Amino acid sequence: MACGGKFAKMKVVLVEDEPRLAELLKEAIGDYFQRFEIARDGIEGLAKVRETQPDVLITDITMPKMNGLELADAVKKEFPDLPVVILSAYSDKEKLLGAIDVGVVKYFIKPFDPEELLTYLCSLAKKIKKQSLVSLKAPFTYDLQSEQLFKNGVLVHLSKRESRFIAQLLHSPNHYLNNEAIKERLWEDEEVSDERLRTFIRRVRLKSDKTLIENVSGQGYVLRMADE
């Protein structure tokens, strides 16, 4: 496919409770992408989105624990710019009316040709590439696709967790996260002390700049953008 190169750094999360269909899609199109993660229900899907920071979320509608529209709604609150593609059985057609309200960009009625989905993802890839570089407080930029921070166009060498911290701030409402949310998203089930968190933040600020990531009254941290 002519678009193949644009998929090289893209990450996809597929949420599908039918194992056979999930594996079929992964076999058909998964190799085109940098990462192609599968989740079996909406709750697992939300965790995968938080962990992976994908470029696209593909989700079935009818699933246990949390359906696709509930998942899309939850994801959009944390990652408002993440494109969400819905997979739907014909019997779910009326539910698709609710897809508009949660910002779904496209839906496919089962059964569908995986090549059709891949073609659509190609069109998304072109848009995502153009939008991947975000201007932060000068002289910093952040590449959403490579998850890397740059200062005056020069790469700032961050660990995977440090880079993910900036991505989490970037995607959060008002670019702010409180201390507990940072611990939950970066360390998940691991117990993290306040002192360990402060040491982690201090290291990130030393590598970048203390004015890029600012403390908010000891309650959390905010990422400063270009227009602030």
Describe this structure as you would to a colleague.
There is one protein chain. With 228 residues, the chain is α/β, with parallel strands linked by helices. The chain folds into 2 domains: 128 residues, 3-Layer(aba) Sandwich (Rossmann fold), CATH 3.40.50.2300; 91 residues, Arc Repressor Mutant, subunit A, CATH 1.10.10. It is built from 7 helices and 12 strands. Strands 2-1-3-4-5 form a 5-stranded parallel beta sheet, sandwiched between helices. A 4-stranded antiparallel beta sheet has the order 6-7-8-9. The chain has a 3-stranded antiparallel beta sheet with strand order 10-12-11. Strand 7 and strand 8 form a beta hairpin. The protein starts with 10 loop residues before the first strand and ends in a 5-residue tail after the last strand. The model has no long low-confidence stretch (mean pLDDT 86).
